[in-house]
Structure formats: structure tokens, C-alpha cells
Amino acid sequence: MTQAAEMLDTFPADLGRVNRAALVHCIEECFSCSQVCTACADACLSERDPAGLVRCIRGNLDCADLCDTTGRLLSRHTGFDIDTVRHTLEACAAACKSCADECERHEHEHCRVCAQACRRCERACRELITVLG
Amino acid sequence: MTQAAEMLDTFPADLGRVNRAALVHCIEECFSCSQVCTACADACLSERDPAGLVRCIRGNLDCADLCDTTGRLLSRHTGFDIDTVRHTLEACAAACKSCADECERHEHEHCRVCAQACRRCERACRELITVLG
Amino acid sequence: MTQAAEMLDTFPADLGRVNRAALVHCIEECFSCSQVCTACADACLSERDPAGLVRCIRGNLDCADLCDTTGRLLSRHTGFDIDTVRHTLEACAAACKSCADECERHEHEHCRVCAQACRRCERACRELITVLG
Amino acid sequence: MTQAAEMLDTFPADLGRVNRAALVHCIEECFSCSQVCTACADACLSERDPAGLVRCIRGNLDCADLCDTTGRLLSRHTGFDIDTVRHTLEACAAACKSCADECERHEHEHCRVCAQACRRCERACRELITVLG
After folding, report:
1. Is residue A133 predicted with pLDDT exceeding 80?
2. What is the pLDDT of residue D88?
3. What CATH number labels D18-132?
4. Alpha-carbon gap: A37 to the closest alpha carbon of chain C (Å)
5. Distance between CA atoms of residues A21 and A66, nearest Å
6. Mean pLDDT, to the nearest integer, of A50-75?
7. Nearest-by-Cβ selection for A51 from D41, D50, D61
8. For chain D, domain boundaries
9. DSSP state of C50
10. Is the ipTM of this complex over 0.90?
11. What does the pLDDT read at residue B20?
12. Which residues of A touch D46 (CB under 8 A)?
């Protein structure tokens, strides 16, 4: 069991009818994608031609920030506000999509790994939106 | 002129048809609201009865994170992604509304100041959504 | 291979004489500890007696923020500033120690899991300080 | 009175022998510097020659993250941990110094404004370290 799953299991109050597997998966993808996007922005800066990667770097930075905030929100279950969570998941999915689209235009290995992380996180956000009802 | 306005004025490329006043105002409200919500969560922890303030604390933490991320996104103008920005502003406005609604239920001075900061930030986000077109 | 390790392997420039294993391990512990501390603060809020847990919640919030920032700094290798990195690792280790000390005073399962994550992250930070020279 | 000062004034418990003016000033400089560094990194990406600014961008990103985290820590007064705060202020001052040194090597207006914000924040952190005793 991962740390995020273990923390969800030790939550002391009723979690309601939440889909635990989808929630844990989304938390993990958010934190992972935040790290990968931070690293990809930096790797782009160390490429020979950073001028061709400025849209990629900016997309990485936005995506890192939104994944970070989304992962934090999803790690909290006390006094849950469905409207805030749903809009945040939409924003995170949009940032992941935009970042993946841009990363896929480049042949760098770090962009390839990053695009995959973004696609997984986008999917996890959209699945969680669906099961939130 | 504030720092945020000065930074916008020194941006070296074309900003397009953005409403500068609405953008600068929203950036400032986001950073200010993030600080105020962080402080309100902590002040709630030091009240005699934190048990009655748990929803308020949670709302403060979400709002602080979303204001922080929104302020960062709005401070970037390179390779702007309208879809991500709009969803992020919606998420931030929802968090501000939720936090203000909760803070207004309590008589503590810090909750009163925080509710005002959240209402201003919510309004600034919604106005920026409108002018983004 | 984990995502953080994969990103380090695809970095396009010379990393110098860095200890890759210690670096990757510390990045992973930082991101994991940030999630766990965020979740522990929230779980404390949902306990029957949050008043007895206010120091724990505050420590969790500081530790989550420092782990987050430390994980981000360590994910960047371009134009590395040793002085900033060393002080940041010291700050992160101090926050982890303080949070673990406090969590160990409570019998809640989430505090136990969180204390372990903080001890691992503190150790990873101190080991990285040592190998940084 | 600024928002940060107003929040400090409404804190419900004893703040101890803290120097309020130095604390409020440091909180304000941290949040302001975080915004300015985020904007400067982005402005650098939109310059004609981002390749010459990669160290500046990286320094901006580190400084934005550390100022953000430092501003949050200083906004919390419950269960204050002096050791964590002191190390965090040292890390923030180091990041501000490093970022200012780099920004001063460039003639761009945004780098000039950013260097000034970093110097002010570095000074505010060092002054607060001194008065913390």
C-alpha cells in the first residue's frame, strides 16, 4: 500500500461515498506529475536551444503548480467543498492536457516522460470528476 | 505603481488585448488573499474552541493554495493557455466564495478580515473571467 | 525505476559529481512527506479533540510547505546554487524533526504514519547535506 | 494598515516578545518577492535570447518557491518552532541573494525590478533573524 492510500485508510471520520481507488490514484498522479513537470522545465532550460522550448517551460510551470494544489486539496477530506474540488480538477486536467500537447512536439526524452505523466494525471482527474457525480 | 503592475509594464513581448488593470488587480488580490487565508487558518488554531472552526480552517487552506497557484499563473504571460487560466479562475473564485461563506459564520476578527479578502478576490477572479472573453 | 529517477537520467547536461541515489531518494521522500503531512493536518482536524492537536497541525503545515519547496529545488539542476540548497535542506530537516517529535506524542494512526514519513525525509535531507560536501 | 498587519493584530493568543514591525515587513516582502520572481522568470522566457538567461530563470524559480514558503511560515504563530523558522529565513535570504546577484548581471528592466525586490526581501529576512535572538 502506498503512503497516500495508508493516509486515506487512517482518516478518522466518515469519507462518504467517495471512490477510494480513484481518489488515491489521482492524488498520486498529481504529486508525481508536479515533480516531473518541475524537472522537465529545468531540463528544457539546459537544452542547447531553450528558445524553442519556452512554451513547453511555461506549460510545465503552470502544470506543476496546479498538480501541487490539486494533490493538496484531494488530500483533505474535512469539510469537503464539491464545487471547489470539481473546478480544481477541471483546471488541473486542462493544464495537464496543454502541457502534454506541447511536450509531444519535442523529441527530448524528458519531454516524452513528462507528456506521459501529464496524460496519466489528466486521465486520473477526469475519472475522478466522473465518479464525484 | 505596485510591484505587480511594474512587472507587467516591463514584460518584453506583446500582451495581446488583455485588460491590464483587471489582471494586475486580480494578481494582487490572489497573493494578498493567500497570505490572509494562511494567517486565518493559524489564528483559528489558536482560538479557545478550534473544534468549532474545522470547516473554516480547511476552507482557508484550500483557498490559500488556490490563490497562490492562481496568482502565479496570472503572473506568466508567455504561451498563455486560455482554457487553463479560465478553469483556474473558476476554481479560485469557488474556493474564495466557500471560504468567505464559512468565515462569515464566525465572530472572530480574523475571520471578518479574511471574509473581506476572499470576497474581493472572488470578485477580481470573476471580473477577469468576464474580460478574458 | 521511479519517475524522479527517470527524469534525472534524461537531464541533458552534466550533473557534476552529485550522488544520484541520494538525490533521487531525497526528492521522493520530500514529495511523499509533503502529501502525508497535508493529509495528517486534515485528519487531525477531523479527530474528536482537535484542540489537543493544534501544535501537530501547525507542524504538519510547515513541514508540507518546506518538503514541497525542497522537492522542487532538488528537481532543478541548471545553475545550481549550493548555498541555497544546503540551507533549504537544513530547514526541511528541522521541520521534519519538529513535526515527527510532535506526531509521536499522539496515538492516532495518521500521526504514526506521518512521524515515520518525517523521520525518513529528515534522514534523506541530512544524508544529502553530507554528500553535497 | 496592510492586510498582513491587520491579520497579525487580530491573532487571538499571545505572540510573545516578537518584533511585530520586522515580522510584518518580512511577510510582505516574501509575498511580493515571490510574485516578482515568478513574473521575472516568465519575462526572461519572452526575451529574444532566453539562452543567456537560464541561470536567472532557475534562480527566479527557487526564490519564488522559498519566498512563498517563508511567507507562509511567518504567517503562522501557533506552536512556533524557532529552529525551523531560523533555517527557513537563512534559506530564503540565500535564494534572494543568489537571484539578485544574477538579475544584476542583465540589463532588462524586469531583472532590475526583480533584483531590488530580492535585495529588500534578503534584508528583511536577515533583520528578522537578528531580532529573533
Report:
1. no
2. 98
3. 1.20.1270.360
4. 9
5. 21
6. 98
7. D50
8. 18-132
9. G
10. yes
11. 96
12. 54
